[in-house]
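writing this on my phone so excuse typos. first protein, seq and then structure
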Amino acid sequence: MAVDIYTIPEAASRLGISPRRLRRLIGSGAIRVLRAGPHIRITETALSTYQSRPQKAVQP
């Protein structure tokens, strides 16, 4: 079974957000990542899990 793994720019593009915003989500623990030394990779499962979570409404 193959697992799709993305770099930060690739994953950010799939989510429609900036790489900087994705790094903030990773730092807050909202998205789980794989770390191998200085390299960060995000699985398709982690992206799907994040996308399926209810989003908080933004107050004006």
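second protein below, same order as before
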Amino acid sequence: MENKNALKQHFGKLGEYLKDRRESQNLTQIDVARACQCKSQFVSNWERGKCSPPWDILKKLMKLYDIPERQLFNFLMKEYEKLIISNLGIRGKR
């Protein structure tokens, strides 16, 4: 159960990030769904941390939201590191 909660939290952080980027571009979930050729419910699910967008959609979002590759990479690595630390029960940095 712990792993499931950690993964859900990981998706939640990505969802918050994507929602912030969408709003900074003054786009609605419907706008994003049209641009990504998916349903707005799918966009809502990412933003609420229910799931993560597939890689091909994530690439489209990077262009749509004007997210530099390195910025998204750093964000994902930071969040993934937290997920690993949480799942392995690592305390503190060495």
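The chain has a mean pLDDT of 88. thats all i got for now
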